[in-house]
Design brief:
With 133 residues, the chain is mainly alpha-helical. The chain has 4 helices and 2 strands, in the order E-E-H-H-H-H. Strands 1-2 form a two-stranded antiparallel sheet. A hairpin with a 5-residue loop joins strand 1 and strand 2. Helix 2 packs antiparallel against helix 3, helix 2 runs parallel beside helix 4 and helix 3 packs antiparallel against helix 4. The protein is rod-shaped, with a radius of gyration of 29 Å.
Length: 133
């Protein structure tokens, strides 16, 4: 045990000799809750809501971009006169997954939205590979 500047013996937890539980202090749960809320963290809930809203918007924008790029690639390849094949199916699935990712992101399922969007982008990349030209 160490002695502080006021001569009170500090326990191993540095409590100044005061018990950790509510023993003799007489603080009720409501008082402790009020003290906790007075610590300056009142904006924590608003900050988390803002972060979640920003994440939903970002993932929705990425999913929409993947869907639009897949549609654009499909239009370019059809405009060049490429024969229909597996590539059109991969682009179509990429468009569908990008749209689904957009819907998932807007409803708050951001992890699923990112996973579905990444799979759609990967399928579009496979459809654009030289093996399908």
């Amino acid at each position: 045990m160490t002695t502080g500047s006021d001569g009170a013996a500090n326990g191993p937890e540095g409590t100044g000799g005061q018990p950790l539980s509510g023993g003799s202090s007489g603080a009720s749960a409501d008082e402790l809750r009020a003290q906790f809320h007075a610590q300056g963290r009142t904006g924590l809930v608003e900050e988390r809501r803002r972060d979640a809203r920003q994440a939903r918007g970002t993932y929705a924008a990425i999913a929409g971009l993947v869907a639009v790029v897949c549609l654009g690639l499909m239009a370019v390849r059809l405009g060049q006169g490429d024969a229909l094949g597996v590539w059109i199916a991969t682009y179509g699935v990429g468009v569908a997954l990008g749209g689904w990712g957009f819907v998932l992101a807007r409803t708050g399922h951001t992890r699923w939205a990112m996973m579905v969007t990444c799979i759609g982008g990967a399928l579009a990349a496979v459809g654009d590979s030289p093996a399908f030209r």
